[in-house]
Design goal:
Layout lengths: L3 E5 L11 E5 L4 H30 L6 E2 L2 E3 L4 E3 L30 E6 L5 E7 L4 E4 L2 E5 L5 E6 L3 E3 L33
Antiparallel strand pairs: 1-2, 3-4, 4-5, 6-7, 7-8, 9-10, 10-11
Membrane topology: Single-pass type II membrane protein
Organism: Carlito syrichta
Pfam families: Sarcoglycan_1
């Protein structure tokens, strides 16, 4: 800091010995504290900048995204294995062409279909002991769209051309059954 000096002439007072010099500025311990504070701020800024660069490097931040998460025109693209600790909400989830999409869970995987009021309409639960589906209707179709099996509150429909029952005891119908054709396997008797 440049020292500025102001001269002041005392001409009105008798016995003055000439111009007096008044020093203006910061001197002594105040100046040292100010330099120490500026040095401390500079070190703090450098450490902050170094930590920011380190975090950007470790987390693999780029212009396209962060780590395995990339921002594309169609949305977000996640490459590699990922773990979700909270529920995942998405309009569409798909794997890369030619690769399978895997869901792994220690307990179960639940897929919920919600309406506008977030009420569950249909639910599919795959657990360690069973696969459960909840909904108004359950259907199984072929690749071409032909109905193989359908079930709702009123009826169960088997749409296959041929129904085989492989149980050792056969099948039991407690009420009447209607069919156009009943036959046994070749060279076996129908009982």
């Amino acid at each position: 800091m440049p020292q500025e000096q102001y001269t002041h002439h005392r001409s009105a007072m008798p016995g003055s010995e000439g111009p007096q010099v008044y020093k203006v500025g910061i001197y002594g311990w105040r100046k040292r504290c100010l330099y120490f504070f500026v040095l401390f701020l500079m070190i703090l800024i450098l450490v902050n900048l170094a930590m920011t660069i380190w975090i950007l490097k470790v987390m693999n931040f780029t212009i396209d995204g962060m780590g395995n998460l990339r921002i594309t025109e169609k949305g977000l693209k996640l490459e590699g294995d990922s773990e979700f600790l909270q529920p995942l909400y998405a309009k569409e989830i798909q794997s890369r062409p030619g690769n399978a999409l895997y869901f792994k869970s220690a307990r179960n995987v639940t897929v919920n279909i919600l309406n506008d009021q977030t009420k569950v309409l249909t639910q599919l639960i795959t657990g360690p002991k069973a696969v459960e589906a909840y909904g108004k209707k359950f259907e199984v179709k072929t690749v071409s769209g032909k109905l193989l099996f359908s079930a709702d509150d009123n009826e169960v429909v088997v749409g296959a051309e041929r129904l085989r029952v492989l149980g050792a005891e056969g099948t039991v119908f407690p009420k009447s059954i209607e069919t156009p054709n009943v036959r046994a396997d070749p060279f076996k008797e129908l009982r």
